[in-house]
Fold this protein.
Amino acid sequence: MPSARSLSQTLEMSDPVFVCPHCGNKTPHKSVFSHSYVGDWYGSDGQLANDPPTSYYTGYACATCGDLSIYENHEYDDGSEPNLVFPSDVNLDGSIPEVVARNYRESKRVQKVSPNAFAVLIRRSLEALCDDRGVAKGTLHTRLRSLAENGEIPPVLVEVTDVLRTLGNSGAHNTDQQVTVPLTWQMDKFFRTLVEYVYVAPARLKEFRESVGVDEAE
């Protein structure tokens, strides 16, 4: 996705080429609409900013699949890439380690075109999660059980990880159980629930405590 600092700069681009978050192809995109607004911005002190920046939304249609993607950038952005706001389920939260997020991003690129490959990459994401949490090497089944025994995940999420692991095995081998696109939708939700519990919720709680000056021991 090309960098942009203002709406006018974005509109000057002629069919920019970037990876479509829907179909995973690197292909030209046509700008189909734009919108700007000035919203409420808050400073680190929790007070409204006196001079909030203008925000810009730009919608792009993929030349390959035709689907719509919407990006946002702000007036004071210094050459940074616009933020993808739709679809919203492509990227993981910034609190999630890159080794986990990288495999997930790859899985999203093939979700529609190769559901079996998606399942395999989700399985790899589980392995990366186990590595990041310091779980000893072994079968993925054993490693995921260790997460529960260590108190990292509750029992219900152990069942979720078993579903993801089993479907990942199905995607990797020639079996009667083939992964379909609708199955990937559920796998995606399950995986995001898992990483929300392991990474995102603790990170949000830590941020909140720091923002209000509450010590964890209190």
